[in-house]
Amino acid sequence: MTAAGTGSSLPNAAPQLSADASARELVEARLEHLLATPAGVPPHLAAALRHALLAPSKRIRPLLVLHVSEPRAAEVTPALDLGCAVEMVHTASLILDDLPCMDDAQMRRQRPTTHMAFGQATAILAAIALLTQAFAVLGQLDGVSDSTKVRLAAELSAAVGGAGLVAGQELDVNGRDSIVAADGIERLNWLKTGVLFVAAARMGAMLRGLPEEEVEAVGLFASHLGLAFQTADDLLDRTATAGEAGKDVGKDGGKTTLVTLFGEQAAQLSYREHLAKAEAALAQTRITPEPLLTMMARLFDRREIRTP
Amino acid sequence: MTAAGTGSSLPNAAPQLSADASARELVEARLEHLLATPAGVPPHLAAALRHALLAPSKRIRPLLVLHVSEPRAAEVTPALDLGCAVEMVHTASLILDDLPCMDDAQMRRQRPTTHMAFGQATAILAAIALLTQAFAVLGQLDGVSDSTKVRLAAELSAAVGGAGLVAGQELDVNGRDSIVAADGIERLNWLKTGVLFVAAARMGAMLRGLPEEEVEAVGLFASHLGLAFQTADDLLDRTATAGEAGKDVGKDGGKTTLVTLFGEQAAQLSYREHLAKAEAALAQTRITPEPLLTMMARLFDRREIRTP
Question: How confident is the model at residue A85 (pLDDT cuts 50, 70, 90)?
């Protein structure tokens, strides 16, 4: 069963495909440029940074930033750089999640995880370098006011810090056993995925200069999108092969998820509810919905959630 | 032999002792306050953050910020918070340096290293949380202009990133074998220690609104201070007991340092030269030199560098 078959009003994926593909190419070229800029990076570390950041990826978060901020052609660079900063943070979190002391994953994005390829020390340092560079990129956004830069940095640090992504990973590693109810799982899913989706969307709205109520609405949209995404990921982990997922699967077998708690059918229901709520929130903003809805459709279309 | 006995014009430590001690108390109370503020931090992670950040420490970097920015009483909070942000970054770097895949240290600041006490995953996450909070603190400096905040964040991210502290640790772990000359060691010492000393001093000068040439001069001062400090640390590692150092010693036994390359006497000479150059650079600024020179004297007075 796919998102397109759930009665959602998500549009067919085809028309937007090439637009997203070319946006993704823009993002990847810009990521490569941003990695190439800093001098003085030791070669082994630089190679690890490229390995992690330039691996094949859907670039959902940068696309989210671009589709929310809808830059005119002349303004594409700040939105693109903002998207790249979010992608750097996301990649840093993946590097750390994959470490032996966390998920102990061997494969990610179709290639060996960063610590498998470069050693644990360099992997950890690469994560720190990416995280730090993300803040540096925010400070250098071309033509953006200092007050907006300060606001963006505050949003990003709150999303990453001890009450954000870091809290999610801590609970994932040391707190899963205590999760016995749906709201605990949703909080964990929110912290693991939703929090950065929300930050990406809100930052895109801030960059665009949208009023506060629309920043809130687009944050709500992204929150539901993130929760749907994480639930789909948990479903995928149960049903996909490693080749399909491009990473280790079945790693979550011992972990409490919505799937293990309530079964696949309930997880799919929750996932569809979040998609519907995401659409409703988006409708409260001036943002052109089609590119985002198409992106969602493509995202979940790929994740065929089959009963084993 | 101590710094005080090297012919340097460093003043006697006694008069300033109480001033620095009370500044250190201010720093520690403020660190505790900053840790207490964020909601939503999982308890195990929060305990790790307190363990690492509130451990006994000389708080050199916050004192450096305070002595450079010389806040009037009413302006103490931004300088104090800036110092705390630097201390958060420094503590994050210590947590990571101590990991099994890096220096594999058991003790630090008189207590078990963070990964020994809380596990590797939580230790790594604590480092990320501290680093991220440092950027958050910069964004919230009371009464400081957005343009200064942006400038401070740029300085901090450059000091930490792939060409800063992270590069130093990468070279320390994976590049020591290739270091065969004094300038290689000095570069490594600069990256491991000097870079954050320099950032602390420069940020203090920026906060104070000093002109660019004085920001440069105080950066040069801190650079020499940092190199002296790292060389003293290498000397200390060879000669102190664990009890004296408050951390594992002799861990650097297999590593190339100025001491292993050229012997203790040459290392001591280099260390004294850096102290003299630090003083000369400081004299090019309007900063009251006594508190900084006294801090240096106390710092190196403690590190009795004995021939075994």
Answer: very high
A176 touches chain B (CB under 8 A): no
B308 found inside a domain: no
Q: Looking at residue B247, what is its pLDDT?
A: 66
- Taking Cα atoms as reference points, which of A264, A70, A252 lies closest to residue A179? A252
Compare CB distances from A133 to B41, B42, B161 and report the shortest one's residue.
B161
CATH no. for residue B64? 1.10.600.10
Residues 115-144 of A with CB under 8 A from B: 119-122, 124-125, 127-129, 131-133, 135-136, 138-140
B101 part of contact set with chain A, CB < 8 Å: yes
The ipTM is: 0.89
pLDDT tens by residue, A143-189:
999 999 999 999 999 999 999 999 999 999 998 777 767 788 888 88
Give this prediction's pTM: 0.89
Q: How many domains does chain A have?
A: 1
The answer to whether residue A308 is domain-embedded is: no
For A12, other C-beta atoms within 10 Å of its C-beta total 12
**Closest residue to B167, CB basis, from A41, A147, A161:** A41
Backbone φ and ψ for B143, nearest 5 degrees, come out as 75, 10
In chain B, which residues have their Cβ closer than 8 Å to the Cβ of A92?
128
For the record, the structure tokens of A59 come out as 């670039």
Joined together, the tokens standing for residue A27 give 């993002």
